Structures are given as C-alpha cells and as structure tokens.
Amino acid sequence: MPVRIRLARMGRKKRPFYRIVVADSRSPRDGRFIEKVGTYDPLLPDDHPQRVVLNEERIRYWLSVGAQYTDRVARFLDRAGIVPGATRYRGTGKRAQEIAARKAAEAEGAEA
Q1: What is the CATH number of the domain that holds 9?
Q2: In the chain, how many domains are there?
C-alpha cells in the first residue's frame, strides 16, 4: 500500500485550514486517512507557533516504514529539521533558474 504524508483541507470557503495526514495515496484528498500527524493554518503569520504543528515522533515513524511526502509537506519537514534538505524546487521558470544558479555558486564556493 503506497502511503503518503500530505495535506487534507478543512475549514470553510475562503478560510482554509489543513490537517497533515498519513493516507493511502489512492484515497481522495479530503477522504479517508490513516493518521493525523499535524496541522497547518495558512492564515496565521509566518512566525506564529501554531501555524505549522507537527507530531515529530509519528512522522519519523511513518518515514521509517517508507511513507513518501508531498512537496508542500517537504517544506514543513525541512523547516522543522525532521528531514533536512527535503525541499524540492521544480519548474523551468525564472525562479528555478535563480535557484539553480545560487546552488551552483554555493557548490563552487565550497570547493574553493
């Protein structure tokens, strides 16, 4: 059974609130899930402690048994220090080119 750590939307119209859940990848976004491992409230300021709440112990367990995470959840895990370097940047736009150039410069600076 392919398991993913992903967001499930709650809240009402124009007032989003997300649960961070472990779910079978084939189940619907807001459907059945195995376990709730955190919350995300995008309406709170970036520095508010309740903006992203994670149950680190359970997330580490699910990662140890092979659960994958979505791109958005990867950012949360990277910022919390659970999975350093998990943030993935995709795309071919201007922002992706800037990030690639910055990484190349950092790698060149590390070698010197």
Answers
A1: 3.30.1320.10
A2: 1
Tell me the C-alpha distance between 49 and 45, whole Å.
Answer: 9
* Class of residue 52 by CB neighbours under 10 A (exposed 0-12, middle 13-18, buried 19+): buried
* Residues lower than pLDDT 70 in the chain: 1, 88-92, 111-112
Q: How far apart are CA 77 and CA 81, in angstroms?
A: 6
pLDDT at residue number 83: 87
Residue ranges with strand state E in 57-104: 68-69
Domain that holds residue 32: 3-111
Check residue 73 and give its pLDDT: 92
26 and 91 in contact (C-beta within 8 Å)? no
